[in-house]
Amino acid sequence: MDSGDNGEVRYELKKGHGELFKVCRKTGEISLKQNLEGHNREYQLTIAAYDGGITPCSIEVPVNVKVIDRSMPVFDKQFYTDSVLESIEIHSPLALSIQAESPLNRKLIYSITKGNDFEEFALDFNTGERAFVGRTDETVFQKKNRWMNDEAKIELNA
């Protein structure tokens, strides 16, 4: 590691979209100057690093930036729980209503991602309505019910 002026490095955006991005001269951190309007768009930048020597040494590094749409559905509750009677009829809807909103008013698709290992529950992909679709005898049902209550929750994605 160099010392003195040779050990001091400064960074700059050499090429590409200076109207959208800026580079911290001391740290090289890239940040936005404004909101990016196009989602899933890629940008090509070139960042240069210079030392502070009398004859400065430098290097240019290409940086690819890809904008990813990170908006997530918002659920009414963090967790949803429900009880199922042993005598429930197959294909009976469950009373618990799951509500989610899309921040960009996009169509939501619901799925069960965890806690349905015995495939006892079905989910309408469009509405989030759940139904009991499995039939178990009392002993197996108690084991499954205990397993679900003790170790797992049904996790949903929208």
Automatic annotation (TrEMBL):
Cadherin domain sequence ranges: 2-75
Give the InterPro entries listed for this entry. Answer: Cadherin-like_dom, Cadherin-like_sf, Protocadherin/Cadherin-CA
Record has Protein transport as a keyword: no
- Stored Pfam families: Cadherin
A molecular function (GO) held by this record is: calcium ion binding
User: Primary place of residence?
Assistant: membrane
Keyword list, A-Z: Calcium, Glycoprotein, Membrane, Transmembrane, Transmembrane helix
Q: Does the record carry 4Fe-4S as a key word?
A: no
In the bilayer, the protein is annotated as: Single-pass membrane protein
Q: Under which name does UniProt file this protein?
A: Cadherin domain-containing protein
Q: Which organism is it from?
A: Melipona bicolor
Where is the organism placed in the taxonomic lineage, from the top? Eukaryota, Metazoa, Ecdysozoa, Arthropoda, Hexapoda
